[in-house]
Amino acid sequence: MSTSAPDQQTEERDGIHADTPNENTPQELPEGQTRAAGDNIQEMEASDEGKSEDTGSVYDLEPSDDSAFRMGTEESIDPAVMKQLSNAFVDQFLPSLEQSKSSINEVLSNQTVLIETVEQENSKFRDCTAFKELTDTMAKAKEYHNKLLVLKRDMVSLHDRAGKLKKRALKLQQQKQREELQRAHQQEKELEKEQMLTARVARPDT
């Protein structure tokens, strides 16, 4: 019975895989070779420990050794990654910053409105103060006007009393003058009577 070409290729490939050992599968070694391999592994570990003791780790470097520290820690960063990080940072904080900006603008606007309102209230207060001062002045003027009216009335009363006193004094003066004239006439009459009596008394003697 003849086999086809694909079947032959499959059998050949299976035969090759069967003949070649797998790298992942452990291979059995003779006892002498196993001991030699173990000794080689111990020597490699010892050599690695010696190298680590000679060179030291990155954390054992002195701070003054900047070149060694930089060589051990510096890494090149992709600009695209930096740009993405920057954009992400901006996208993260930009909304809150915009909100804060709008809040600050609103506060400033409210402050401006408050200042204008306070100025208007101050103007009204000044107007009220001026009106109060004007009212007080008018009240004082009215009070002074009343005092002037009272003073005028008193002056008129004093003028009337002075006129009456003047008339009375004039009457008294005229009455005194009349009395003096009457007294003078009376004295003249008495003097004439005395003269006449003296003349009559003197005539019979002659």
Proportion of strand residues: under 5%
Summing up helix and strand content along with how strands pair, one would put the structural category as mainly alpha
Query: Kindly state the mean pLDDT as a whole number?
Result: 74
User: DSSP helix count?
Assistant: 4
Net shape: rod-shaped
Secondary-structure element order, as H and E? HHHH
Task: Give the uncertain stretches in residue-range form.
Answer: 1-6, 15-37, 51-65, 67-72
Describe the main β-sheet briefly: none
Fraction of residues in helix: over 70%
The end-to-end span amounts to 244 Å
* Overall strand count: 0
| Cα radius of gyration in angstroms | 74 Å
What's the layout of helices and strands?
Blueprint: H1 5-19, H2 31-55, H3 66-73, H4 79-205
Descriptive labels:
cytoplasm, single chain, Snapin/Pallidin/Snn1, 85% helix, rod-shaped, BLOC-1_pallidin, 4 helices, mainly alpha, disordered N terminus, 206 residues, Biogenesis of lysosome-related organelles complex 1 subunit 6
Describe this structure in words.
The protein is an all-alpha fold. It contains 4 helices and no strands. The chain is rod-shaped. The model is unreliable at 1-6, 15-37, 51-65 and 67-72 (pLDDT under 50). Pfam families: Snapin_Pallidin. Keywords: Cytoplasm. This is Biogenesis of lysosome-related organelles complex 1 subunit 6.
Q: What's this entry about, in short?
A:
InterPro entries: BLOC-1_pallidin, Snapin/Pallidin/Snn1. Keywords: Cytoplasm. 85% of the residues lie in helices and 0% in strands.
